[in-house]
Amino acid sequence: MVRTHSRGAHAGKPAPLRGGPARGTRARGARAGNRRTGESRVRGVRPRTTRGRVIAAAGATVVLLIGLALGWASPSPSAEPTVQAFLLAWENGDYTSAAALTTGAPAVAVAAALESAYQQLGAADLSLSMGSITQHGNTADAHFNASVDLGRGSPPWFYTGNFQMRRIGGGWKVQWLPSVIVPGLRPGLRLAVLSTMPPRAQLLDAGGVPLAPRSRVYTVGVVPSRLTDLALTADRLSRATGLAANEIFNWIAEAPSAQFLELLQLSPAQYQTLRGGLARTPGLIIRPGRARLFNSIAPEVSGSVGTETAQVLQEEGAPFRPGNTVGLSGLQQTFQRLLVGTSTTEIVEENGNGQIVTVLKRWSGRNGTDVRTTIDSKVQLAADDAVASLPDSAAIVAVSASNGHVLAVAQHNAPGRPQVSALAGKYQPGQAFTIVSTAALLNSGLDLNTPIPCGVSNAVGGENFTNIPPEPNLGTFRSDFANACSTAFAGLSLRLDAKQLMAAATNFGLGASWRLPLSATSFTGSLRAPTNQAELAEETIGNGSVRVSPLNMALAAAVVQSGTWHPPMLVTSPPDPGLSPRVPFTPQVVSGLRTLMRSTVTSGAGQAANVAGAAVYGQVGSAPDGSGHWSSWFVGFQGNVAFAVVELTNSASVSAAPLAGHFLNGLKP
Questions:
Q1: Are both 358 and 411 inside the same structural domain?
Q2: I need a labelling partner for 607 at 20 to 30 A (CA). Which of 80, 154, 283, 428 fits?
Q3: Omega of the bond prior to 75 within 30 degrees of 0, cis?
Q4: For the domain that residue 168 is a member of, what is the CATH number?
Q5: Given 3-state DSSP classes, what are the helix, strand and coil percentages for the chain, each rounded to the nearest 5?
Q6: Domain range for residue 332?
Q7: In this predicted model, what pLDDT tens digit does every residue of 350-376 receive, in sequence order?
Q8: Rounded Cα gap, residues 460 and 452, in angstroms
Q9: End position of a domain, from candidates 165, 187, 209
Q10: Which residues neighbour 337 within 8 Å (Cβ) at sequence distance 6 or greater?
Q11: What is the pTM of this model?
């Protein structure tokens, strides 16, 4: 939606708020050649010092007087001193003196027109300089150059003006018309500024489709001519929203009177919060509609957007501007400048009906630029659907195994349960970490069919390890992996040293220095080097100091699928160079891991994830979080989609494999 705002005044507007507009606001002025009533006027535009031009004028006057004393008198005295005096008085805000140098009557109306002309534009500064003067007997044609600072970050408005002079008695006067101020300005017209803000650009999925679906938006506005008490409307809306009342007042007062003026865009939640205050604000019009603004199918990466009432805008002292949007978190915040664009500004002449007669100057703005992400909408929606109705908090992260592109990030935080974070969470992975420790074991020469008992308990390094929940006595390394046997892997830690386990963790990307372009830091995983055999056994089964996020484990599954570790990538345009991929393991190690992870799904603890279609590979795990809850995991891949599922449960017996199966079923054609 394009928001257009005209910054000018209307005859017959109500009186402003008591005390007048605050610094930085725009006061209403007079129509050209006609004083307006019923409105306040703040001080005129106070220009930068013009001491140099004042000295020059004084010098010219002295020279002229000396010349007259010496008999230099000419039949027609120069109009230049009058032109210079008029421009200096106008520029310095001495409108009464400037008006006295014109033929306009009454002089007070001329003074009002000069004062109000640039107030209608909200000008912060005015600079005038004299140009050429051509005399023809008792008439003259004077030119001047004007520079108007609009005070809104726009470039100065430069234009060349001109007016006629007439000799009256022994002196000269400016022949008054509204066009003295700006060429073409006529009685009944006024200057105004139109600010058109482009709609916020979009975050796109990998296929170029917006991540934000069209969702309900409430547009709040007014038709200025229908307001019976503008000051009251501004005050009540200020109380409801926290916006400055004087800024609301000025924005409405300077807009076209007969057109709907958008003031706010609200999400349904914002509207419900402000509904009572809005209902008590006279003259408001609320229009429900739909726009791609507040919602996203991937809110954990998109983040959120605030509009005119956003607290961050008020804290930063940003002036009220309808259509203003700001990214509050996620990619919306990271790429704020790229997405928001800049406004198009036009200086126009407008008649009393709010119709634009002439465009005097136009500065073209810039549309926001879309940002393309790696999110795959189909994968994202499948992940969203899988976690949406769970009684527990859960998260799913999926990546492309071939290049590390993040395909989906979904999380669901259930009421009364621990909160989960798909990207920044720090969880023990439990037996799901045996993907990492198995890579170290296979690299040391362990065979898949090596007999490895899976007992009820196993004492290693002075610490007793048990299976929770209990596992049958299986017998081979393959079956131990498939059923995530903790006691077997605790014993297998005796075949490793700390250096081997740390190297395997590094090769899977734990602790790597990648960073996603998000305002919140994503966790890259951590593992402290074990100092004794008990610690080595703990970390072999994903306990102890091991901490990972769902994204870490999805990247680990991608290594098994592709044989290559890729850093995660979330945005492709603008491009993110990221880190270089690497091949961390031999083909034999990767092949062995694939065989074991397939066994988990076909005959082991992950059978609930063995959905129809392409073969599914994975590993399960669970670990206590120290507060009576458990992190239940399924980490695996199907085709090129590598993923990790974590569910925060009340019991170690709850498996995340069914949740993984639900997710994979959502990927079917």
A1: no
A2: 428
A3: no
A4: 3.10.450.100
A5: 30, 25, 45
A6: 197-369
A7: 887 778 888 899 989 899 999 999 999
A8: 15
A9: 187
A10: none
A11: 0.81
